[in-house]
């Protein structure tokens, strides 16, 4: 018998959330619509020749100057295999817990600067230290490169003495794809299974078939479906075999419990439902939490939105349950 899929619904959107969505719809979405159209027109070969990563690095540094880590959070640069990463310690944490985090950005954009503050909040909710892997991204690199970096991050945690049953893989958007796909990569290499996976609005369908015709294609305040299609084309072009390594393609029957959070108004809600259904069919415990009328990865706006803070609290509850651990947290010095 299939494992039940638990679907929960978050708080109704506050006036602040509605204002954020309207503002994003009026400013961010038109810009990304144009970028997506240009990307589709240019094609993967032209995109690979553009200085996308150089521009992204500058933008990420600027974001990092504004989005400071939460107060009392320690951030230490580290090396993880062939790439850089950051070790993020919230003020209150259980030293035996760890979150292995992969930032969003469609596997092409963002980095430590854009995500440091949110990862700090996720780590605090989990009462865990976090290792953020700044994985290699398209169009210069392949999904297989990113998965290698993900596996290296997991090995790094094991080498630090973390037990697999105290490690949670986590990510948002494209990082959610990586967190879900990384479980299969770990198991295929004979590594022990982590305790759980957290995926916030995961982008799991490379070709975009599950999003085709979805009403949120027009409703999404930030992400154009065409942009997801363009990114999928680059992933498939860089290494056609990588399509078979995406979460909707790999066997998932031996996955750990999964929490998926998404907005009812975003285009990646289709991906969230498709992934949850696939996990349920494979008898994997999965909880899908749908939050009404929020922007994509609204958890990043926790300074402004009470719904984001509520979502983070539910993440903490999920991780507590998955780790089945009441170990005493300790306070780090500021």
Automatic annotation (TrEMBL):
Pfam families xref list: Abhydrolase_3
Residue ranges occupied by any Alpha/beta hydrolase fold-3 domain in the UniProt entry: 99-299
Family matches, as Gene3D superfamilies: alpha/beta hydrolase
InterPro entries noted in UniProt: AB_hydrolase_3, AB_hydrolase_fold, GDXG_lipolytic_enzyme
Domain of life (superkingdom): Bacteria
Keyword vocabulary terms for this entry: Hydrolase
A molecular function GO annotation: triacylglycerol lipase activity
Family: Belongs to the 'GDXG' lipolytic enzyme family.
Protein name (record): Alpha/beta hydrolase
